[in-house]
Amino acid sequence: MIESLAKPVKALRAWIRGRRAGSRRRRIPTQLIQLGVIFAVVGVGMFLMRQKFVPDTFGDLGHYRAAAVAANAELEPRYAGWQECAMCHPDKVEAKNSSFHRTVSCESCHGPANDHASNPMQLKPELPAGREPCLACHSYLASRPTGFPQIIEERHNPVRACTGCHDAHDPTPPESIQECSACHNTIARSKAVSPHAPLDCEVCHEAPPEHKVQPRAHVPKKPFEREFCGTCHDRRARPPEEIRGVDLSVYEIPRIDLVTHGGTFVCWQCHYQHSPEAR
Ligand code: HEC
Ligand code: HEC
Ligand code: HEC
Ligand code: HEC
Ligand code: HEC
Ligand code: HEC
Ligand code: HEC
Ligand code: HEC
Asked: Where does the pLDDT of residue 279 fall: very low under 50, low under 70, confident under 90, or very high at 90 and above?
């Protein structure tokens, strides 16, 4: 041990002597020495911290703390899963799993209910009430998938609790989807939350009644020119006050100059036809 150190110590002595003698060639700049000291301190510090902070069982089974497996297994489960509920609430499970809400778990609405499942009479889960719990998923948000059923809170039967009209476990709307939305539901849902919500499909599409029976044989018309949108939006036009029973005079229809706005492109080159401001 001592012998193996002799060589480097000798070299260090020679180097210090060299420095004293002012030998330019072998001199190490002071900055480098200072940097070296800092690196050494940091390195030793990191080594010590690693010793102190890395948990004992880290790495035993893989790149994680092996004892975490047991620690997590000891936690009390808070959620039971809908399969648990089926034992005592078969009617609710049956209703939900064959409805629009089949992908929504019982406990998404009722909160964690494992305690309840093991002690049903003493511990009751939450009973969601009012509008807030439903709006968490159904209020309009641009980031939800296109065609997801959404509503604009202030416009959709305001104030009343959602469960006054919808059964939470089978929320099929009280009036079943019909007419155009029966087949064009994604378009209908986009339109329902757009500025064009008050406009009936047939304001823009003249649809022969046969289209609903033989859709491919009897195709409805589509607007094909800018002037069509201009009937309501041109600064020079007088928009209809009422269209298909909808009072348009309550809306502040935004106006543009049909001649200059958007060049000669058709409007739906830039505005989505069923959600003009991509709302
Ligand atoms: C072992 C049987 C059992 C299981 C399992 C069970 N429940 Fe219940 N649950 C009951 C009983 C019994 C009641 C009725 C208590 C009463 O009427 O006082 C009840 C009532 C409820 C209520 C109404 C509470 C109220 O305030 O009226 C909800 C909500 C509920 N359960 C949800 C669930 C959910 C969700 C699950 C699955 C995670 C579940 N239950 C699992 C037996 C069970
Ligand atoms: C979309 C939210 C939602 C989901 C999902 C849901 N519930 Fe409910 N549940 C409610 C609401 C809201 C009420 C209160 C009903 C009311 O006030 O009319 C309720 C009431 C209940 C009640 C007690 C009242 C009654 O109608 O007898 C039970 C029991 C219950 N739910 C069980 C379940 C079970 C079991 C599941 C899963 C199969 C489930 N719920 C899934 C929202 C939900
Ligand atoms: C955790 C999210 C979530 C919550 C909370 C929730 N829903 Fe839903 N809802 C969904 C999903 C997912 C669908 C199915 C969407 C689909 O079919 O594309 C749906 C579908 C619906 C539909 C059917 C729309 C249609 O296509 O005609 C109605 C109505 C509805 N929910 C009402 C409610 C009501 C009322 C509540 C509150 C009691 C509620 N939802 C709470 C996720 C939720
Ligand atoms: C006064 C009764 C009533 C109330 C209260 C009500 N709804 Fe509706 N809801 C309806 C009817 C009727 C429809 C189907 C026709 C329509 O789209 O307006 C519907 C449709 C829906 C749809 C489907 C929309 C689509 O585009 O497919 C959703 C989602 C919905 N409601 C959620 C809710 C939520 C969430 C609440 C509470 C914040 C609520 N509703 C309150 C009556 C009601
Ligand atoms: C029975 C289902 C069904 C109903 C109801 C229905 N459609 Fe259609 N619609 C279709 C199908 C399928 C197509 C595709 C036809 C094709 O591409 O050959 C279509 C195509 C269209 C087109 C596009 C035509 C084109 O040239 O691209 C429009 C516009 C349209 N439908 C509007 C409506 C309107 C408005 C209503 C309500 C009055 C309605 N549809 C009701 C099934 C339906
Ligand atoms: C403000 C006018 C307007 C309203 C309201 C409207 N549409 Fe359209 N629709 C258009 C225009 C514009 C086009 C695109 C024409 C083109 O691309 O050549 C279109 C295209 C379509 C197409 C062809 C496929 C596509 O997505 O481009 C279908 C299907 C359709 N509409 C169905 C409907 C249904 C169903 C409704 C009612 C829920 C509806 N439209 C309401 C203006 C409207
Ligand atoms: C029957 C009348 C009518 C027709 C036809 C019509 N719109 Fe609209 N438009 C409206 C109304 C009503 C509004 C909503 C005003 C409000 O929200 O107060 C609107 C709003 C808009 C907006 C503004 C959105 C915003 O956020 O301010 C745009 C863009 C638009 N429409 C584009 C079009 C295009 C493109 C067409 C042709 C495919 C068209 N409109 C056809 C009545 C019409
Ligand atoms: C070349 C793309 C383009 C075309 C084509 C186009 N627009 Fe626009 N439009 C825009 C842009 C960008 C805005 C928002 C900025 C602005 O106000 O100029 C807008 C805004 C609007 C607004 C809202 C104005 C306001 O004051 O809020 C309406 C309404 C509108 N457009 C209707 C139309 C109609 C109707 C047509 C067809 C005649 C059309 N647009 C064609 C790009 C276009």
From this structure: very low
Facing residues of 151 across strands?
A: 139
The alpha carbon of 64 is separated from its chain's Cα centroid by a whole number of angstroms, namely 30
CA of 92 to the centre of ligand 6 (A): 39
134 and 122: one domain? no
Instruction: Answer yes or no: do 192 and 279 share one domain.
Output: yes
Distance (angstroms) between ligand 7 centre and the Cα of 46 equals 64
Residue 172 lies in a domain: no
Q: Which of 253, 267, 277 to mutate to test the pocket of ligand 8 (most atoms within 8 A of CB)?
A: 267
Ligand 5, atom 11: nearest CA belongs to which residue?
215
Distance from first CA to last CA of the chain, Å, rounded? 78
Give the domain extent around 155.
130-161
Question: Which tens digits make up the pLDDT trace of 109-145?
Answer: 999 999 999 999 999 998 999 899 999 999 999 888 8
> Which ligand sits nearest to residue 182's alpha carbon?
5
The rounded Å distance from CA 215 to ligand 5 centre is 6
Side-chain-facing half-sphere of 139: CA atoms under 13 Å: 9
* Token digits of residue 222: 């589509």
pLDDT surpassing 90 at residue 160: no
Per-residue pLDDT for 176 more than 60? no
